[in-house]
Design a protein that fits this description.
It is a single chain. This protein is mainly beta and 814 residues long. It is 9% helix and 30% strand. It is built from eight helices and 41 strands. The strands form nine sheets. Strands 29, 32, 33, 34, 35, 36 and 39 form a seven-stranded mixed β-sheet that branches. It has a six-stranded mixed β-sheet with strand order 8-7-2-1-11-12. The chain has a six-stranded mixed β-sheet with strand order 27-28-26-25-41-40, with helices on one face. A hairpin with a 2-residue loop joins strand 37 and strand 38 (765-767). Helix 5 packs across helix 6. The radius of gyration is 29 Å and the shape is globular. The relative contact order is 0.10.
Length: 814
C-alpha cells in the first residue's frame, strides 16, 4: 500500500537539502526508556493488513490504550513505523498526534488505506499515511515528532523518547524475547483487556480479528466514518448536501475529516494516471468565502481513474487529510471513492489567476513553532494561505520566468512575481529567513504523452500554464498542468572564469556530488571540464564528496585512489595540469553521506605552481595542531584533520587542513563539508516558523573551525588562511556568524553584489551554501562564483564551484 508522492518516488533522506528546517517539540519531562514497562499509555493493537486481499477493514491502524487512572496527554507525541527487517536506508515514518487518551480509554490512529476491504474504521483520532506491512514491522509510541534513528532492539531500548514499542511478525526491533506473532491481512496483534505490559511483545500481544476502537468508544460501523454525509440513501444521480467548499473548510484541515460524504458534485479538471493516481473535481458554483477552496483531489489508489476532464460527476468517499511527510502540510482529499458520471464535455470552471497582483507579499502565518493547521486562512495576507485556499482548484499564470531548472522527475520552478529578488542570471534569490520568496511555484505536467521541457533558469514558460493546484512534501504547492506554456530559451550559458596571473595563487572549491571510480566516464569528463576549463585550472582545488573507490558498496573500502586517478586523468585530458592529491581516508561509515560511500574532502594541487608541505601523523582519528616557530606557524600534521574526536563531527565530514607554499609564502587551506540540512522542517510545512534543528551541529562545527583559525593567528596574526567548502548554510546564517566570530575570517560571498550571492538552487530559490572565507592577512584577492551547474537542467553536479585568486606577495606580512 505504498503511496508515491506526486509524480516522483521518495528520495533518500541523505540527499535532501531543504531551505527550511526538523522539528522537536519542547518536552519538559521525558519518559523512561521502554525497557521499563508502562503502567499508563501503551500500544494496544496494531494492524497492517487494511485494504489488502482478504481484509475486511479498508486501512491500517494503530490503537493506543491507557491503563492509568489519569488522562494521558499526547500533545507533541507521535506513532512511528519501521519495517520488520530494516536496511541501511530504512527510515522511521512518523504520524504526529494530538489530544489525549482517557483513563481506560483508547485512541485510534488511522494509517494508509488499500484498495480492498469493505468496512471503514470508526472516526480516527489521528490520521497518517504510513503503509504498514501486514506481517512484519515495528511500531513505537514516541514522546516527540522527530523520527527515530535506532534500528536494533538494543539501540531503541536506550532511546528515552520511546514510551512503548511493538514488534510483530519477524521484526528485528521488538521488546523482550521476541515479536508478537500471527499478524496477517485478516489478523491484528493486540493486548488483553487489562493492557498488561511486561516489555515482552511475544507474551503481551496475541493475534486476533482486528477490533479498532476510537476515543469515543466507537468500533467499525458505529461512528460517522460509515455515514453518508447526511444524505440517507437518495437518488444516485441527485447531488448530496455536501459541497467541495464544505469539505475544504476555512482552515488547512477539513471539518469533515474522517467522515464519508455522498454524491459531492463537481467537474473533473485534471486526471493523474501515474504516481498518486486520482483526479481533481471543482464545483463551478462557488460560495462567497474566499477561504474555502472549490476543488479537491479524489484519490483512487492503484486504480487508474475512469473519468475524463470535463466530466460532470457525483463523488462519494471518505474525507481524509493526506500528509506527504511528517512535517508537511496535508492534502485534503476524498479516498476510496465511487463516482457517477452525469455528462461529459462540460466547460471547465474558470481558473484562478496566480500573479503578482493576487499573491500576497507575506509568506505564511506563524504559531510559535507549532502547527498552523487550525488557524483560519487569510488568503489576502499570506501567500501560502492564498495557495491553500485554492488547493485543488484550477489556477493559471502567463509568461512566467523559470527560476528552478527542470529535473529528472519532470518538474521545474517558475516565479509569478518577476521582480521578486531577481538574480542577474534570471533566478530568484533567497536572502533572508524572514522574507521567503512568495512567487515561486513548482510546475509538473499531467500530459504523460508529451516530453517535459528541458528548461534552465532564466528561460520562460511563454503563454498560459493552467491546471489544478496540488501540494507535496517536495516544494509545497505545485501546478499540475493540463496546459503548459511554450518554453522560450533565454540562452543561459555556463560561465568561464579568468586564468590566474603568474603571481596569483588560485584556490577553488567544488562539490562534485558523490564522485567515485565506478561513475560513467561522461560524468567524470564533465566535472573535469569544469575544473580545467570553467575554473581555468586553479592551483589548488578543494573537492567535496569524493567517495571511496567502489562508491556506495558498503564493504569497508575507504581509499579513493582509483577515483582520483580517473578524475585527474580526465582533467589532464581536458587541458588542465597533472594534479597531485592529498586526503585523509575516513573511518568506515563515520563521516555521513551516502551509506558505504565514505565521502571526504580532497586537495588537488598543481605541483608546477604550488608545493604541498607533507608532515606525517595525520589520520582519521588524530587531530592536527599548530606549532609556532621562528619562521611562522606550522601544522603538526599536513594533511590533517581538525579535532576529529569532537562531538561536532559526529556522522559528518571532518575538515581537511593542508599547508601549501606559493612563491615562498605559506598558505593554510581548510576544506570543509558541514553537516546537511536533512531533517530540517520545510519552509512550506505546517510547523511555523520552521525549526532548523540541523543548524545546531553546523554551528558547533563552525566554532571548531573558528577556534583552529584563531590558533593559527595566535601563532602569527598575519597567517594567510583560506577556509572553504560546502558549509550547507547561508551567508546570513548563524553558522557563518559563528565561523567569522571575532573577525578572524571574512566571507567573500558578501563582497559580491547581492544579486550574485548564490551557489545552489533549491525549490526555485538561488542560495549560497558553498563559501570561501579568508583571514585578515589576505588583503589582495579576486573572487568569483562560477555558475556552471545549479541553474541548468543538464548539470554535472548540483553545486556551482568558486575560486579566489590571491596576490600573495601584496598581502600583509608580519
Amino acid at each position: 500500500m505504498s503511496r508515491p508522492v506526486g509524480n516522483r518516488p521518495r528520495r533518500a533522506a541523505y540527499a535532501l537539502i531543504a531551505v527550511g528546517v526538523a522539528s522537536a517539540f519542547a518536552i519538559t519531562s521525558l519518559p523512561a526508556a521502554y525497557a521499563t514497562p508502562s503502567a499508563t499509555a501503551v500500544i494496544s493493537e496494531v494492524y497492517g493488513g487494511g485494504g489488502n486481499s482478504g481484509a475486511t477493514l479498508t486501512r491500517d491502524f494503530v490503537e493506543l490504550g491507557n491503563a492509568g487512572s489519569a488522562a494521558y496527554d499526547l500533545a507533541g507525541y507521535s506513532v512511528q513505523y519501521l519495517p520488520g527487517a530494516p536496511s541501511a536506508s530504512s527510515l522511521w515514518q512518523v504520524t504526529a498526534l494530538n489530544g489525549s487518551v482517557a483513563p481506560g480509554g483508547r485512541f485510534l490512529v488511522a494509517e494508509a488505506a488499500g484498495t480492498g476491504g469493505s468496512t471503514t474504521l470508526p472516526t480516527a483520532d489521528a490520521t497518517g499515511s504510513v503503509a504498514m506491512s501486514a506481517t512484519s514491522g515495528t511500531v513505537a509510541l514516541v514522546s516527540g515528532t522527530t523520527a527515530l534513528t535506532c534500528k536494533t532492539a538494543a539501540d531503541c531500548a536506550a532511546d528515552s523518547r520511546i514510551v512503548d514499542l511493538v514488534g510483530y511478525g519477524s521484526a528485528l526491533v521488538r521488546e523482550g524475547s521476541g515479536p508478537a506473532t500471527g499478524a496477517s491481512n485478516s489478523a491484528a496483534v493486540a493486548r488483553g483487556a487489562t493492557l498488561g505490559d511486561t516489555d515482552d511483545n511475544a507474551a503481551d500481544l496475541s493475534a486476533g480479528t482486528p477490533a479498532p476502537v476510537n476515543s469515543a468508544g466507537q468500533s467499525p460501523g458505529s461512528g460517522d466514518d460509515g455515514g453518508d454525509g447526511g444524505d440517507g440513501g437518495g437518488d444516485p444521480t441527485t447531488p448530496g448536501t455536501v459541497r467541495v467548499h464544505d469539505i475544504q473548510g476555512t482552515t488547512r484541515l477539513s471539518p469533515l475529516a474522517g467522515q464519508t460524504v455522498s454524491r459531492v458534485p463537481g467537474i473533473v479538471t485534471g486526471v493523474r494516471t501515474s504516481g498518486s493516481k486520482g483526479y481533481w473535481i471543482q464545483d463551478p458554483a462557488a460560495d462567497a468565502d474566499s477561504r474555502t477552496s472549490e476543488g479537491v483531489f479524489v484519490y483512487t489508489g492503484s486504480a487508474t481513474p475512469t473519468v475524463g476532464v470535463g466530466d460532470s460527476v457525483l463523488v462519494s468517499g471518505k474525507v481524509s487529510e493526506y500528509y506527504p511527510s511528517s512535517t508537511s502540510q496535508s492534502v485534503t482529499e476524498l479516498a476510496a471513492p465511487t463516482a457517477t458520471v452525469l455528462s461529459s464535455g462540460n466547460a471547465l470552471p474558470a481558473a484562478v489567476a496566480v500573479d503578482a497582483t493576487s499573491v500576497p507579499g507575506a509568506y505564511i502565518p506563524t504559531a510559535g513553532g507549532g502547527s498552523i493547521e487550525s488557524l483560519a486562512l487569510e488568503p489576502g495576507v499570506y501567500a501560502q494561505d492564498f495557495y491553500e485556499s485554492t488547493e485543488g482548484m484550477r489556477v493559471t499564470f502567463s509568461d512566467a520566468r523559470v527560476v528552478g531548472a527542470s529535473d529528472a522527475y519532470g518538474e521545474l520552478w517558475v516565479t509569478v512575481k518577476p521582480d521578486e529578488n531577481a538574480t542577474t542570471r534570471g533566478g530568484t534569490l533567497y536572502s533572508s529567513y524572514d522574507q521567503p520568496n512568495t512567487g515561486r511555484l513548482e510546475v509538473m505536467s499531467l500530459d504523460t504523452t508529451a516530453p517535459f521541457p528541458s528548461a534552465d533558469v532564466g528561460d520562460e514558460l511563454s503563454g498560459t500554464t493552467t491546471g489544478p493546484l496540488d501540494y507535496s512534501t517536495y516544494g509545497g504547492y505545485n501546478v499540475q498542468a493540463t496546459q503548459l506554456g511554450a518554453l522560450v530559451d533565454n540562452g543561459l550559458k555556463p560561465e568561464v572564469t579568468r586564468r590566474q596571473k603568474g603571481d596569483e595563487l588560485a584556490v577553488a572549491t567544488y562539490n562534485v556530488e558523490n564522485l567515485d571510480a565506478l561513475d560513467a566516464q561522461e560524468k567524470i569528463d564533465r566535472l573535469a571540464h569544469g575544473v580545467a576549463v570553467n575554473l581555468n585550472s586553479p592551483d589548488v582545488v578543494a573537492l567535496e564528496e569524493i567517495q571511496d573507490d567502489n562508491g556506495a558498496a558498503n564493504d569497508g573500502t575507504v581509499t579513493s585512489e582509483a577515483t582520483l586517478k580517473r578524475f585527474t586523468d580526465a582533467i589532464r585530458a581536458a587541458g588542465g595540469p597533472r594534479y597531485q592529491w592529498r586526503y585523509i581516508a575516513p573511518t568506515d561509515n563515520q563521516d555521513g553521506g551516502e551509506p558505504g560511500g565514505n565521502i571526504r574532502q580532497v586537495f588537488l594541487f598543481n605541483p608546477k605552481r604550488v608545493s604541498f608541505t607533507d608532515r606525517a601523523g595525520g589520520d582519521a582519528v588524530t587531530a592536527t595542531g599548530v606549532v609556532k616557530t621562528r619562521k611562522g606557524p606550522k601544522l603538526t600534521a599536513s594533511p590533517g584533520r581538525i579535532d576529529p574526536a569532537s562531538d561536532a563531527w559526529d556522522n559528518s565530514r571532518k575538515p581537511l587542513v593542508g599547508e601549501f607554499v606559493f612563491h615562498g609564502e605559506t598558505v593554510f587551506v581548510i576544506a570543509n563539508h558541514f553537516t546537511s540540512k536533512g531533517g530540517d522542517q520545510p519552509l512550506h510545512g505546517r510547523y511555523q516558523p520552521p525549526s532548523r534543528s540541523s543548524e545546531t551541529q553546523r554551528q558547533a562545527q563552525a566554532a571548531e573551525v573558528n577556534t583552529f583559525v584563531k590558533s593559527l593567528l595566535a601563532a602569527d596574526r598575519n597567517a594567510k588562511t583560506v577556509v572553504l567548502g560546502d558549509l550547507n548554510d547561508y551567508e546570513f546564517s548563524g553558522t557563518v556568524t559563528t565561523l567569522t566570530a571575532d573577525k578572524v575570517l571574512k566571507p567573500l560571498i558578501t563582497t559580491l553584489p547581492a544579486t550574485e550571492r548564490y551557489t545552489y538552487v533549491y525549490d526555485g530559490n538561488s542560495q549560497a551554501l558553498d563559501h570561501i572565507l579568508t583571514s585578515p592577512a589576505v588583503t589582495h584577492y579576486d573572487y568569483d562564483v562560477v555558475h556552471i551547474n545549479a541553474e541548468f537542467a543538464d548539470q554535472a553536479s548540483d553545486h556551482d564551484p568558486q575560486v579566489v585568486r590571491i596576490d600573495v606577495s601584496r598581502c600583509r606580512r608580519g
